[in-house]
């Protein structure tokens, strides 16, 4: 806490008071803004190209962009989106006090490449991708073959090493081996498909691979031609035919019937008519007529033969190759990544693309996709382009462009930053960081505690598809948790080693309120908020109590829970 | 305390609040406690609905529309009921109450994917990337809220899984999701009311500043939900969630399981004025081993709970004002697959409704001899919704305006099923 104190001292008290007397509504963030040197535009060509294409759409719709966000807001945004939590006061001050013209780029690079952040970066993207691949509840039920630990371990390694995206997809689609860490042929990537291949002729695997990696929603074409796009039932079953050699095998504990782990394997497939040399797949048209399909990828490419013998054709290995060679791969990837940072992708949802759901910025989507492939699928470069773009820098205030609101059913124009609620995981990490609650716990213990906490919000519907919902969605249970839940109780506790206690004991009285607001909202308190604090204090004659109440209010505010 | 205040709270405003904290407590936190007097009076016109949601897609030809003797017919036999329609032999208690319920046997829909089917059956609309439609509970709560000014707890409660969301109606119409044990988590702050009031005043200050800086509708909705939360935290009506206050024999009659308790809770909630309760029972996605699962688990569960609910509402004189809807996202294939299960099927299936003055004891529509298609006019999610709305006295001319100004007809223009409404 010493370094923290010295950082606080560095603040320019004179300017602060000037603003205060002059009655500026936003006190010190505005100060640092005014005092900040003019920033240099980044030299990255991709950023310039993104900015140009975004501006083109503004011009076309005669829209004016919002001004740029305050430095505090932008910094908070970058921390949240990149490493999954808000910045600490020290981190925020570090950025605000940086005088260099390329400070934005420096911050993004620090979070991407500095070893001190590798763990948090990997954790954030592991969370995001495990939710995509196996859902929030995958592996938590007793009878699940998914080993959640195994999935997380695989992803964590992949993101910590910045594995190229195509390589990761190739491994996830083609994975063989055991789901569970510690087994001889452990391969955590198998957890993606382990629960999706045995039931219903592998229809879950068909749908998941198409949707997640290719942006093609094919679920309904299982039973009938798609009502909106040109996906035909035939295509669905041709895709499905790639996955019919694949099986999930249960592995039992020695001498018992307890399932210990599972293994994903490819076995000879005899075809539905029993001729493995030409292993076919049957499906029923809506009019009852039965039709036949062999493996054919969406772009028409086929396996070398229709054999069902793995020794002749490993269909899933072929599929993995087709998937990573497909241009759908990079389009879906950049669309998802853009959606992660800007709140909306170029299509809504990000994993449903096609002529029935045209993108808002087709040229930009194509451009980013092409550039992403050119970097050999380097996630970090893509992240850098997006976070340094103009669209990502704008304020979430929609003064003159409120009509640009995707909630109204409009396609996004990105004239301002769209408000979005933190994910439950982001809230958790933010509270833990802001309140230093988890000091001294090992990584595994932390993850375990977090997983338990997260489960309170998740409901699995119990379908084979693993459909689920979260109550961390801005409804009453979430508010109740923020009002009264243990995590927040702990965060506002008067305990000496708790956050409020630390502030009380280590920060100068005049700076305590600002410290709380910076920790939670990445800005100083306004005049009104300072006054409120004084009133609370006078009423209670208990500064610790007043700090607790104020910190509670900060954590419960819209400004806290929204990434803005 | 008004968290909806569109203007920011300035310093004077805040000081006023803080100075008069006790007065404030009177106005905001005790909000609900004053109005219980005329409850009985208002109850007269009060309509409600209970949706029994069968997540996963129940095989209705094994439950409500049996085909004994057909190759697709499965293992179960039909039995007679107190109404005109026969149902599955494994629901003897319900059979005695079928004079109050009606089976719609010619449902024919197109969505056979769980997510899509769930959305469609809850909203009457197929999923659309540009707009999110409000679910059943949100729509009905929104329409019936005026009949219950004394309601302090959320007007749409979902017991079990989370239903569908409020869509363009906004977060205050979102389902309040609770466990069937009736325990609402994190209800108590463990502080004196004055302290809570101080905290809320400070919160409002920060909240209002952010809203006033034109951050869009989500920032405002957050404040609305906070308001609902404060109401609920201090409401005596929360007692309705405590199913364990019921006599053990009542709990037993409904079934000592999650769904049974959920149905019992639904009755208690409707009694205190909640207009829409959804109780879910999952586990109907029976791709394998379907007959033992239905016979030993699913059917006894709904038999007990649903029959208890119908009887209980009837005995309390509430059935005439309470619609009951039993449905899932779709049904299951007439063909029995290699794992002795049935797969997804939306082309020909059944939904059951009753109460709120709808005609009971009948089956509306029919399917062909092996259950593979409807033999009479097909009905849709929209039609069921329109019929329920009519029974609840909600005008089918009601039109919502989605946020982009597009008019949306309630129940998506569905047609009332005439046989059900006399």
Brief characterization of the structure:
The complex is a heterodimer of chains A (564) and B (422). Chain A is mainly alpha-helical. Chain A has helices at 2-10, 13-22, 28-35, 45-60, 71-83, 89-96, 103-113, 115-134, 148-160, 165-174, 203-214, 233-240, 315-325, 327-342, 362-374, 379-387, 390-393, 424-435, 443-455, 476-484, 486-491, 499-506, 512-521, 527-540, 543-556, 558-561, and strands spanning 177-178, 246-252, 259-266, 281-284, 290-293, 420-421, 458-460, 468-470, 562-563.
What does this molecule look like?
- The complex is a heterodimer of chains A (564) and B (422).
- Chain A has 564 residues and is mainly alpha-helical.
- Chain A has helices at residues 2-10, 13-22, 28-35, 45-60, 71-83, 89-96, 103-113, 115-134, 148-160, 165-174, 203-214, 233-240, 315-325, 327-342, 362-374, 379-387, 390-393, 424-435, 443-455, 476-484, 486-491, 499-506, 512-521, 527-540, 543-556, 558-561; strands spanning 177-178, 246-252, 259-266, 281-284, 290-293, 420-421, 458-460, 468-470, 562-563.
- Residues 1-9 and 19-38 of chain B have low confidence and may be disordered.
- With 422 residues, chain B is α/β, with parallel strands linked by helices.
- In chain B, α1 (11-19) packs across α2 and α2 packs across α7 (193-212).
- Chain B has a single domain (48-185, 240-420), classed as Alkaline Phosphatase, subunit A.
- Chain B is built from twelve helices and 14 strands.
- Chain B is globular.
- The interface between A and B is large, with 75 and 81 residues.
């Amino acid at each position: 806490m010493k370094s923290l104190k010295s950082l606080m001292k560095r603040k320019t008290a004179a300017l602060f008071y000037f603003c205060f007397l002059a009655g500026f509504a936003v006190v010190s963030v505005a100060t640092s803004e005014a005092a900040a040197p003019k920033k240099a535009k980044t030299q990255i060509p991709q950023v310039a190209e993104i900015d140009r294409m975004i501006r083109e759409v503004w011009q076309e719709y005669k829209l004016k962009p919002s001004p740029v966000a305050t430095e505090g807001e932008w910094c908070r945004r970058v921390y949240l989106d990149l490493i999954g939590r808000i910045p600490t006061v020290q981190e925020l001050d570090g950025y605000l006090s940086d005088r260099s013209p390329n400070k934005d780029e420096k911050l993004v690079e620090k979070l991407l490449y500095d070893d001190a952040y590798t763990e948090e970066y990997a954790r954030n993207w592991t969370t995001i991708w495990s939710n995509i691949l196996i859902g929030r509840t995958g592996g938590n039920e007793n009878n699940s073959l998914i080993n959640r630990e195994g999935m997380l371990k695989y992803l964590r390694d992949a993101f910590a090493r910045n594995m190229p995206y195509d390589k990761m997809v190739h491994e996830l689609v083609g994975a063989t081996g055991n789901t569970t860490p510690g087994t001889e042929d452990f391969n955590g990537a198998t957890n993606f498909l382990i629960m999706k291949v045995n039931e219903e002729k592998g229809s879950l695997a068909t749908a998941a691979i198409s949707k997640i990696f290719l942006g093609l929603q094919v679920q309904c074409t299982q039973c009938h031609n798609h009502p909106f796009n040109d996906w035909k039932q035939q295509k669905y079953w041709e895709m499905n035919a790639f996955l019919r050699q694949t099986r999930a095998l249960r592995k039992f504990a020695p001498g018992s019937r307890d399932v210990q782990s599972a293994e994903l394997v490819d076995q000879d497939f005899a075809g539905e008519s029993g001729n493995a040399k030409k292993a076919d797949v049957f499906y029923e048209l809506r009019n009852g007529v039965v039709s036949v399909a062999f493996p054919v990828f969406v772009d028409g490419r086929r396996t070398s033969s229709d054999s069902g013998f793995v020794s002749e054709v490993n269909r899933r290995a072929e599929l993995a190759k087709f998937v990573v060679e497909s241009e759908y791969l990079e389009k879906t990837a950049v669309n998802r990544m853009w959606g992660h940072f800007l709140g909306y992708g170029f299509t809504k949802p990000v994993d449903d693309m096609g002529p029935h759901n045209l993108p808002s910025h087709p040229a930009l989507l194509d451009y980013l996709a092409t550039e992403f492939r050119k970097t050999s699928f380097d996630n970090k470069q893509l992240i850098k382009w997006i976070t340094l773009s103009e669209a990502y820098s704008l304020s979430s205030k929609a003064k003159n462009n409120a009509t640009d609101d995707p909630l109204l059913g409009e396609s996004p124009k990105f004239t301002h930053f769209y408000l979005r609620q933190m994910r439950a995981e982001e809230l958790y990490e933010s509270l833990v960081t802001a309140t230093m609650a988890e000091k001294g716990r090992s990584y595994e213990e932390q993850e375990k505690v977090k997983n338990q906490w997260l489960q309170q919000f998740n409901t699995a519907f119990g379908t084979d598809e693993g459909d689920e919902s979260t109550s961390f969605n801005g409804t009453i249970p979430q508010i109740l948790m923020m009002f009264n839940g243990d995590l927040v109780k702990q965060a506002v506790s008067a305990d000496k080693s708790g956050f409020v206690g630390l502030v009380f004991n280590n920060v100068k009285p005049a700076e305590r309120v600002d410290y709380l607001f910076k920790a939670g909202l990445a800005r100083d308190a306004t005049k009104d908020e300072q006054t409120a604090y004084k009133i609370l204090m006078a009423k209670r004659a208990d500064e610790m109590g007043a700090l607790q109440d104020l910190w509670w209010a900060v954590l419960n505010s819209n400004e806290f829970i929204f990434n803005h | 305390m008004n968290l909806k205040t569109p203007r920011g709270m300035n310093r004077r405003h805040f000081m006023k609040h803080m100075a008069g904290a006790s007065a404030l407590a009177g106005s905001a936190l005790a909000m609900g406690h004053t109005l219980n007097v005329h409850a009985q009076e208002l109850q007269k016109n009060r309509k409600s609905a209970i949706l029994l949601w069968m997540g996963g897609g129940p095989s209705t030809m094994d439950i409500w529309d049996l085909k004994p003797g057909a190759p697709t017919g499965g293992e179960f036999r039909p039995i007679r009921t107190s109404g005109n329609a026969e149902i599955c032999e494994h629901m003897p208690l319900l059979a005695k109450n079928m004079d109050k319920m009606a089976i719609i046997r010619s449902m024919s829909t197109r969505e056979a994917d769980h997510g899509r089917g769930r959305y469609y059956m809850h909203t009457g609309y197929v999923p659309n990337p540009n707009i999110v439609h409000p679910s059943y509970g949100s729509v009905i709560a929104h329409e019936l809220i005026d009949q219950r000014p004394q309601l302090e707890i959320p007007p749409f409660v979902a017991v079990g899984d989370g239903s569908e969301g409020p869509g363009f109606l906004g977060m205050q119409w979102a389902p309040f999701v609770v466990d069937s044990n009736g325990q609402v988590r994190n209800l108590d702050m463990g502080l004196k009311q004055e302290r809570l009031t101080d905290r809320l005043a400070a919160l409002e200050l920060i909240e209002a500043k952010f809203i006033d800086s034109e951050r869009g509708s989500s920032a405002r909705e957050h404040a609305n939900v906070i308001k609902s939360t404060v109401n609920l935290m201090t409401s005596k009506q929360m007692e309705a969630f405590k199913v364990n206050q019921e006599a053990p024999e009542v709990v037993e009659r409904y079934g000592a399981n999650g769904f049974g308790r959920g149905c019992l809770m639904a009755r208690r909630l409707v009694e205190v004025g909640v207009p829409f309760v959804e109780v879910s029972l999952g586990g109907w996605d029976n791709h394998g081993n379907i007959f033992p699962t239905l016979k030993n688990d699913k059917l006894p569960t709904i038999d007990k709970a649903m029959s208890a609910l119908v009887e209980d509402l009837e005995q309390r004189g509430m059935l005439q004002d309470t619609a009951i809807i039993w449905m899932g996202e779709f049904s299951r294939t007439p063909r029995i697959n290699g794992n002795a299960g049935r797969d997804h099927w939306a082309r020909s299936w059944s939904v059951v409704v009753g109460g709120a003055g709808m005609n009971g004891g009948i089956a509306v529509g029919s399917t062909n001899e092996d259950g593979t298609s409807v033999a009479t006019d097909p009905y849709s999610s929209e039609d069921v919704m329109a019929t329920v709305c009519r029974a609840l006295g909600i005008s089918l001319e009601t039109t919502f305006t989605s946020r982009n100004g597009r008019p949306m007809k309630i129940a998506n223009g569905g047609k009332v099923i005439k046989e059900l409404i006399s």
